[in-house]
Specification:
By secondary structure, the chain is of the alpha+beta class. It is built from 14 helices and 23 strands. The strands form 4 sheets. Strands 1, 2, 3, 4, 5, 6, 7 and 8 form an 8-stranded mixed β-sheet that branches.
Length: about 500
């Protein structure tokens, strides 16, 4: 059982904490001592997982652009070295590339120092084996070792500096060359202008990939790593971030723009007209690409995807839509599970931009996703079409909103589950309320044309004492109608800050 101190570091399938002073009320808890205890915990866990003593393990270590990254990476490397581990220090690297070291470099495990899109003062550790990212129970085991002060036997390992990102960039370039198969094979993007917005994370390397393939990337922004993130939050879900890449595309006259989060496990895009390819539209485009050669395949998404997306996947693309739970690891694990059962599932994707393709080890890699989109753009140009044509029939809501209710009870999970059970019972009896028959998280209810013409989903947050409410409508004013219907129920509940 984790104590309150170490339990606070567990963030789903990652470890996250405060690494720098600078935000009021947030004291540093990712100290060198604590980080060392976590590194020891990972070595012990990995040794047991792969059946090797610590002094026979090879582990890669990378980091994103955060200011605290070099300090934490140094502690991790030194701690593992003292256990006899052969450490490959990859320095500045994307999270997906660190997984790929288990494929290309034969590493037993990998550690990425990152806190994704979270503020500059936070950081964390993300772990991989050749089988993919760890589960929540694995993180608990690592933190339990850390809490107990468990350490592997002392041996003298070695730290080797490795420039794996150069190899990873060549890997992406080869994929584009083969996918486009242009007459000028080595310059398949010659004649295209593509803007990249890295948000001062580690994604600036992608502009080099495109430039080397002949693309004009002069409209790109914020490619230089800066862990204080001075321009905008590196997050494809952030409005300022998407406004930045839209502006870059329009100002430079680019054919497309791509944007990444800090550690490049998520991506988004913008078409030549400045329209966002994000959230439902990104899922639709990725599904269209993934279903090529996978007729009738199943696309796993999270729970908040729109009704129009389901129609697009099933009616326009001929696939099957499996709406699952929020959390990128949840959708990836479901995709793996379906394939293990013999169900053809080529893609698991969350509306946040986490997209994992079976052909790419079910790794959520923003650079790989954008690579597939760019290949498709180049292929379509040969036929005189553009990328927008693929999703032209996607029906998108007229209105949408998200409200996040704080849970006021200490046992927030029990409170949220109680409210979900009560709402389910209420919806079953309420006139005009249609419970979704394919919902697997929270309560999803649809309404007819005269009752709001849309749907809501109320669920419990994956990690936090929050109940997010998503509402979409295909009519002007529909969101307010649906919200008012739901609030009649919510006013009778206890435990929510309305």
């Amino acid at each position: 059982m984790l104590n309150s101190f170490y339990k606070n570091f567990k963030s789903g399938t990652d470890i996250r904490g405060v690494a720098l002073e600078g935000v009021e009320g947030q004291s540093v808890n990712l100290t060198n001592e604590v980080v060392a205890s976590m590194a020891n915990g990972f070595v012990l866990w990995l040794s047991d997982k792969v059946g090797k003593p610590a002094n026979e393990l090879t582990v890669s270590v990378g980091r994103d652009s955060r200011v605290s990254g070099p300090r934490i990476a140094s502690v991790v490397c030194d701690t593992m070295k003292s256990a006899g581990v052969r450490v490959l220090n990859c320095s500045l690297a994307s999270t997906p590339s660190m997984f790929m070291t288990t494929v290309d470099l034969g590493c037993d495990g990998a550690v990425q120092i990152t806190a994704s899109h979270h503020p500059f003062n936070r950081n964390g550790l993300k772990f991989f084996t050749r089988g993919g990212g760890l589960e929540g129970c694995d993180i608990e085991d690592i933190l339990t070792h850390a809490q107990n002060g468990d350490t592997p036997d002392r041996h003298e390992g070695v730290i080797t500096e490795v420039d794996y990102m150069s190899q990873y960039k060549e890997h992406l370039k080869d994929i584009i060359k083969k996918g486009v198969n242009a007459e000028n094979y080595d310059k398949p993007l010659d004649g295209f202008k593509i803007a990249v917005d890295a948000g001062n994370g580690v994604g600036g390397f992608y502009a080099d990939v495109l430039t080397d393939l002949g693309a004009d990337t002069t409209g790109s922004r914020y490619l230089d790593p800066d862990g204080m993130f001075p321009n905008h939050v590196p997050n494809p879900e952030n409005k300022e971030a998407m406004a930045s890449i839209r502006e870059a595309v329009i100002e430079s006259g680019a054919d497309m723009g791509v944007i990444f989060d800090t550690d490049v496990d998520r991506g988004g895009a913008v078409d030549k007209s400045g329209n966002e390819i994000n959230r439902n539209r990104l899922v639709a485009l990725a599904a269209a690409i993934a279903l090529e050669g996978n007729d009738g395949g199943t696309i796993v998404t999270d729970s908040i995807t729109s009704s129009g997306l389901k129609e697009f996947i099933e009616n326009d693309l001929g696939g099957k839509h499996y709406r699952y739970r929020r959390g990128y690891k949840n959708v990836i694990d479901k995709g793996l599970e379906l394939n293990a059962k013999g169900i053809n599932c080529p893609l698991a994707i969350e509306t946040s931009g986490h997209a994992a393709m079976r052909e790419n080890y079910f790794l959520d890699d923003g650079a790989y996703l954008c690579t597939k989109i760019i290949i498709k753009m180049a292929q379509l140009k040969k036929d005189g079409r553009d990328i927008e044509s693929i999703t032209a029939s996607l029906k998108e809501p007229v209105e949408e909103t998200e409200i996040r209710f704080a849970i006021t009870e200490d046992d927030f999970r029990a409170c949220g589950e109680r409210i979900i059970a009560e709402l389910t019972s209420y919806a079953e009896k309420a006139e005009g309320w249609i419970l979704a028959d394919d919902n697997r998280e929270g309560v999803r209810v649809s309404f007819g044309e005269n009752d709001g013409n849309g749907w809501f989903l109320l669920r419990l947050s994956v990690h936090d004492p929050i109940m997010p409410l998503n509402i979409e409508s295909d009519s002007v004013g529909g969101v307010e109608i649906i919200r008012n219907k739901l609030f009649e129920f919510l006013k009778t509940t206890k435990g929510l800050q309305l």
